Amino acid sequence: MINRETFARKRVLVTGGLGFIGSNLARCLVDCGAEVTLVDSLIPEYGGNLFNIDPIRTRVKVNFSDVRDEHSMKYLVRNQDYLFNLAGQTSHLDSMNDPYTDLEINTRAQLSILESCRRNNPDIKIVFASTRQIYGRPQYLPVDEDHPLSPVDVNGINKMAGEWYHLVYNNVYRVRATVLRLTNTYGPRMRIKDARQTFLGIWIRRVIEGEPFLVYGDGLQRRDFNYVDDVTDALLAAAASEKANGEIYNLGADDPLSLKDTAQLLVDTLGKGSYEIVPFPEERKIIDIGDYYGSHDKISGHLGWKPRIGLKEGLHKTLEYYQDYSRHYVEP
Amino acid sequence: MINRETFARKRVLVTGGLGFIGSNLARCLVDCGAEVTLVDSLIPEYGGNLFNIDPIRTRVKVNFSDVRDEHSMKYLVRNQDYLFNLAGQTSHLDSMNDPYTDLEINTRAQLSILESCRRNNPDIKIVFASTRQIYGRPQYLPVDEDHPLSPVDVNGINKMAGEWYHLVYNNVYRVRATVLRLTNTYGPRMRIKDARQTFLGIWIRRVIEGEPFLVYGDGLQRRDFNYVDDVTDALLAAAASEKANGEIYNLGADDPLSLKDTAQLLVDTLGKGSYEIVPFPEERKIIDIGDYYGSHDKISGHLGWKPRIGLKEGLHKTLEYYQDYSRHYVEP
Questions:
Q1: Which CATH architecture has domain B4-187+227-254+293-308?
Q2: Touching check for A172 and chain B: CB below 8 Å?
């Protein structure tokens, strides 16, 4: 679907480049012949992990810095053709316990990155990774891009603001930007140490370690899941399309599943393991969004994107990866 | 409509208390017998003006500080029964030229005020002054609270985030909060030095000074206007009602008018003056929202609020005030 030639010899900056999605994207980009710079600060609680780029270590530049560092970002965005802006604080619980850090990363840093682009490289094309979290508790399903925004936690509010900066800078200053609202993304190189990035991470860790994992609530909440290769396809398609400038696109899957059925599928795919359905911890219950699955009709219509890898196949590939490499993800 | 007894002997904090709406509200509150503390930092470009409280100077406490000052705010919110949270950066143009200051005041300071309330005074009731600007260019008219949020400038994004913090802290931490989305508010004590608070301000200054004032665009954009006494009524009604907790209410007027007709009404009311219809300056055109008027059906239904003072009567009262006192508002 992606014309690989689009990115050949192009200069590409990826914030959060040592993280889950960033490192998978970097593999695609180097395969396309792009000159890739990865920015990451390796905050221990976040998704960055040097092992993620082990297979491409010699083919990318790694720049250790924080998106909150206005000065380094100002320099780094110069002369880039594309910016995949993926760095973010992703934990909903952490955003409630430390709302200022979430604000600095998910909101203020986004503003300063956009100001840098506007002043130092207005011809750059940006793709921003936003989140379905900003819709809050769905008023209807599947959730499309016209669904009202009603964030239920500080992370959702700050991501919403960060997203809208991109749209305003696109509309007012013509710094081209596209927003993707991601749903649950999973696959090789995800954080599995805990649930900070996605609950599937800790499920996978525990099932591989032979421990039962926990499903909160009644297990009937439905969710949709995208395998990471489908997400990197969407990021590349958005970057390559002029039609996508100023647009917001949901990702989503065609096979939403209850948490209980997802848990069972994980156990079945591995061929062993178990889970327990337990009541929500209070601090999670109050920010839970219930059933969610999104419509990806808009991006399918505009950019021809569709998820290609179903949950069963994706979980299989993911489990294969962590059976080989989990030590690189769980050790301190 | 308001039971004045509600606020008798109650401790009330007003941020932006020396500003336009804050000072008018303070007059009502002292008349109700409240113990009122006004917080203001008198930033020269904003709405604060000591003359605004001239008639009630001995009946209120004034605390000069900035809502960005976490420590003073932490102390000030203690032991208050009500917080009218009105301080904000209001200029759309300034938000584009200096987005960080807008972010600090309209977003980060709101978060720190709410954190202070949560930790130091969770029983406080907060009313937050938000803005119709966060709807962006209307998709339908009149705009109700279900209209999608689609801010067109940095100020709109930051106010949107500040507003949603209030809702999340209400929903998650039960710090009671109500959001009012104000439209164009006008009346005595507004800033008339320039257009930073509302375009009506500079119109009034120029017409009183015998200079023609400028109407941008074709003059056909419709807007709605609330006289400040109606707005203070709405603030008090929202504070007094438990039903209003966690709710968002639009204000609005029943007599939206084109800018050209508003200009003519201003000239007719004063009995002299003139205006010129001129093309939009580029930096204003790109963030203009076109026609806007809001529906106030929700607050009318929940709280019985209705605007009582029409534009003609309101402009008359406003012009009377500035004919007497304009020197206190235009001198350096």
A1: 3-Layer(aba) Sandwich (3.40)
A2: yes
Residues from chain B that touch A108, judged by Cβ atoms under 8 A, are 100, 103, 108
Contact A22, A38 (CB under 8 A): yes
Structure tokens at A108: 């203020």
In tens, the pLDDT along B45-57 reads 888 999 999 999 9
ipTM of the complex: 0.93
Yes or no: say if B144 and B250 are a contact pair by the CB < 8 Å rule. Answer: yes
Architecture of domain A4-189+225-253+294-309: 3-Layer(aba) Sandwich (3.40)
Total-model pTM: 0.94
Measured CA to CA, the distance from residue A36 to residue A52 in angstroms comes to 15
Q: Give the separation between CA B56 and CA B93, rounded to whole angstroms.
A: 33
Q: Which of residues 266-295 of A touch B (CB under 8 A)?
A: 286-287
Q: How far apart are CA B232 and CA A241, in angstroms?
A: 49
* A263-311 pLDDT tens trace: 999 999 999 999 999 998 888 888 788 899 999 999 999 999 999 999 9
Three-state DSSP state, B14: strand
Mark which residues 134-153 of A lie under 8 Å from B by CB. Answer: 146, 148-149, 151-153
- What is the pLDDT confidence band of residue A164, given thresholds at 50, 70 and 90? very high
Q: Which residue, among B99, B90, B98, B63, has the nearest Cα to B78 in the 3D structure?
A: B63
Contact A177, A307 (CB under 8 A): no
